Amino acid sequence: MADTHVISALSKKRGELLGSIRHYKQLIQSLDKDLATIDATIRIFEPDFKFGSTKIVNKHKRNRYFETGEDRRLILEALKEKSEPTRTDDLSDIIMNKKALNFDNDYELKNFRKSVISALSTLEKDNLVERVDKIGLVIIWKIKDLNSMYN
Predict the structure, then answer these.
(1) What is the Rg, in whole angstroms, of the alpha carbon atoms belonging to the chain?
(2) Can you tell me the mean pLDDT for 114-141?
(3) Is residue 144 located within the same domain as residue 90?
(4) In the sheet where 86-87 sits, what is the strand order?
(5) Number of domains the chain contains
(6) Residue range of the domain that includes 84
(7) Is residue 81 part of a domain?
(8) What is the rounded CA–CA span in Å between residue 74 and residue 129?
(9) Are residues 138 and 75 in the same domain?
(10) pLDDT for 55
């Protein structure tokens, strides 16, 4: 027999997911109606309009913590100032202090740290930083030695 607290937690999570699915289905239906209304309006003014030629515009969610490129610049500055390999959480704390950010709840802090981790991954792909070690889930980073890249 399964533990009741496990079943309870899973049941609650299932309910949350069903709620999200219902919300997004309603949102899609509403957007479909708006699109049909716009299409009908376009046909009034231009009956022969070719809808396939319309460019699709993707909505990108802006990073609420950093301007474009600011996260990567701040990470590189922090690693340069520390001049020693640094844990991801410590980098996050340094950047939070530089930007004078305070988070009221763990959710916001986790989102901020995810944003820093994402920027670190980008810097790693760009060959600017490297992972030195990993202790459990904690990754330790340093600026990549440019001399080692050319030897």
Answers:
(1) 24
(2) 93
(3) yes
(4) 86-87, 138-143, 129-135
(5) 2
(6) 70-149
(7) yes
(8) 13
(9) yes
(10) 81
